[in-house]
Amino acid sequence: MSSVAVIGSQWGDEGKGKIVDWLSNRADIVVRFQGGHNAGHTLVVGETVYKLSLLPSGVVQGKPSVIGNGVVVDPWALLAEISRLGDQGIKIGPDLLILAENACLILPLHRDLDAARERQAGLAQIGTTQRGIGPAYEDKVGRRAIRVCDLADPEALDWKINRLLAHHNALRRGLTLPEVDVSALRASLLSIAPQILAFAQPAWWVLDSARRAGKRILFEGAQGSWLDIDHGTYPYVTSSNTVAGQAASGSGLGPSAIGYVLGLVKAYTTRVGEGPFPTELHDDDGRKLGEIGKEFGVVTGRARRCGWFDAALVRQSAALSGMHGLALTKLDVLDGFETLKICTGYRIGERMLDRIPASARDQQALTPVYEQMQGWRDTTRGARSWRDLPAAAIKYVRRVEELTATPVALLSTSPEREDVILVRDPFQPGG
Ligand code: IMP
């Protein structure tokens, strides 16, 4: 039995929600392994639109879903999301949702710090989602975070809160934010503890048992490879590893549990927030991509920056995650463009590059090298087989495969759950 990791190959927003929803139909259990409620996964099922931030997309299919230890969890946001989905008819109890007992919590003080830093950064802003993600990971690595299991031990919680606040209140004084009161934080954590602890389990053990029983596990990545804390466009990145290796450590399963790595890739490129974006367009084509592709953030509502498909960038993502195949999404957004461009590499002055360099200054200086392709007039929207695609669209897909050195396994042609062309089933790649 195979397991599949779904990884964003660009800067997030590649359409993971729909593909994970589609794949979770074939999976037995779905696990999130990094990030937090900065993610925004949209699922369209018939007339109903589900917007998920923290919950694994499997919950919509009624599949057991795990929030792994690599995720930072805002417990209030989690309860609000569970309640929101409850209003849409999806009941989420401890039989459906498993929360890693060793996951670290995001607290209101993390949100405050995220927002205060962004305010003070001026032009050096990262453009974060202001959900407190970065500060929460800092506390995790700084070994002073409050974890899910701490909610079960009020005595230990006291000194942990004291240790955390010794750090944060010093920072807050410097930022002219009011200090956080120990007993108020303690009381608010203990008031939600029973609801949160109801979901807490050793997630690694649940997943290991599932693996041993031959269950199909779907690892649901959030954000994208170029927001990875190590490999992304640092410092304009998120604070977790978003590449496939994190699926193992962020869930508590070894790397051998991941059978197939599926790279999610949009047929063009988008980015939210600040940072380098070599193929960004500031013209009518860019505006058209944004309008047709409805490129607004699920979490923050911000307009996304849009540009041509960057094959060099995706080739690098495929290498960083050992991708076996790609799921190409939003091909239909390119319908009606007379000509299309694909970036095959870059130039800095006279120097030619076939990959993204590590230095932020070099990244900002990249000029894309394009090849031009003919567009297509007919629609690809809703196509469910190659026969439904115009010849020029097939040529575009084939060129994406060649330039990224990765085959397309799935093609998504509309937001609807069933509008997919399946080339190779990631759960049965040999079958
Ligand atoms: P943070 O994750 O909120 O710290 O934000 C850091 C950077 O990652 C910002 O540029 C955000 O716009 C970006 N980011 C975070 N989550 C997502 C996502 O789910 N999709 C796209 N961009 C994201």
Portion of residues in helices?
A: 25-40%
Contiguous uncertain segments of 5+ residues = none
What structural category do the secondary elements indicate?
Answer: alpha/beta
CATH topology of the largest domain: Adenylosuccinate Synthetase, Chain A, domain 3
Going by CATH, the homologous superfamily of the largest domain would be: Adenylosuccinate Synthetase, subunit A, domain 3
Total domains: 3
Tally of extended strands?
20
Mean pLDDT: 95
* CATH architecture assignment name of the largest domain: Alpha-Beta Complex
CATH top level of the largest domain? Alpha Beta
The set of bound ligands, ions and cofactors reads: inosinic acid
Taken from the alpha-carbon principal axes, the silhouette is: globular
Report on the architecture of this protein.
By secondary structure, the chain is α/β, with parallel strands linked by helices. The chain folds into three domains: 3-100 and 199-257, Adenylosuccinate Synthetase, Chain A, domain 1 (3-Layer(aba) Sandwich); 104-196, Orthogonal Bundle (Adenylosuccinate Synthetase, subunit A, domain 2), CATH 1.10.300.10; 265-422, Adenylosuccinate Synthetase, subunit A, domain 3 (Adenylosuccinate Synthetase, Chain A, domain 3), CATH 3.90.170.10. Helix content is 32%, strand content 20%. The protein has a ten-stranded mixed β-sheet, sandwiched between helices. Strands 14, 16, 17 and 18 form a four-stranded mixed β-sheet that branches. A two-stranded antiparallel sheet has the order 3-4. The longest helix is centred in the middle third of the chain and has 21 residues, at 154-174. The protein is globular and about 65 Å long. It binds inosinic acid. Inosinic acid (IMP) binds next to helix 4. Inosinic acid binds next to helix 4.
